[in-house]
């Protein structure tokens, strides 16, 4: 996969490049997401159409996806530019997102949540290792593939981070924002991701968020005080893991390296270890197979 933008071919009807757009499956302030199929192979993909007018952050998502190669992160296959839009061609994860799954089937059991979060933690730890904070972790941005694989998606708010650089942009989804963002303080995007991971886990096992009130101001006070009810049905290790993630003081909140080592993630399973990319800079075999199905041939 090239790091260069692909030159767009002529657009005919609902075609963009070699892809035929189908129904829209999502829309945000600056982007619209379509199902699409590749004209040459018939392979189904997702195309995210991003407006370039007034939304300068589009390059962050491209940068992040082009620099991440992990089985639990959505794959970017091609980038197509036009004068007013940027089109990201990505893999189609067919099982919907975690939010839809919770709404349709109810909360996951602690055992099911552990299986999912081992994958999400692995992906997020890999992002942080590569110096990228997601900054919008929530059930909507965790996708489920047909084979039971969970994938981290939507890097529109992602940002390059380092130990000596604090962020100041107020972004994300209110219910999942870390206390330091609600206080408008400079923050470490990686520590903020850990808090969002905790809120996401809470919602995954209960169906609701840990902080809720009849006004945003009261909810903010709850967050800053760390006032939430730990689900009584969780195991002792599960309760400890959740409290650890939802540590109010960011300096005391664990890093993803520390999160990965928590015993809750390894109950009944082998120890969760950091993901290692294929040696020698080779493409992930899954990515290579998918790209070949789209008509791309590997270069030597």
From TrEMBL:
GO biological process assignments: intracellular signal transduction
Protein kinase domain sequence ranges: 19-265
Keyword Lipid metabolism (UniProt): no
Alphabetically ordered keywords of this record: ATP-binding, Kinase, Nucleotide-binding, Serine/threonine-protein kinase, Transferase
SMART domains per the UniProt record, alphabetical: S_TKc
Pfam families: Pkinase (PF00069)
Gene Ontology molecular function, alphabetical: ATP binding; protein serine/threonine kinase activity
GO CC terms: cytoplasm
Record carries keyword Ribonucleoprotein: no
Enzyme Commission no: 2.7.11.1
Reaction(s) catalysed (UniProt annotation): L-threonyl-[protein] + ATP = O-phospho-L-threonyl-[protein] + ADP + H(+); L-seryl-[protein] + ATP = O-phospho-L-seryl-[protein] + ADP + H(+)
Function of the protein: May play a role in sperm motility, especially in the regulation of flagellar function.
Protein family per UniProt: Belongs to the protein kinase superfamily. CAMK Ser/Thr protein kinase family. Smok subfamily.
Name the UniProt record assigns to this protein: non-specific serine/threonine protein kinase
The organism of origin for this protein: Cnephaeus nilssonii
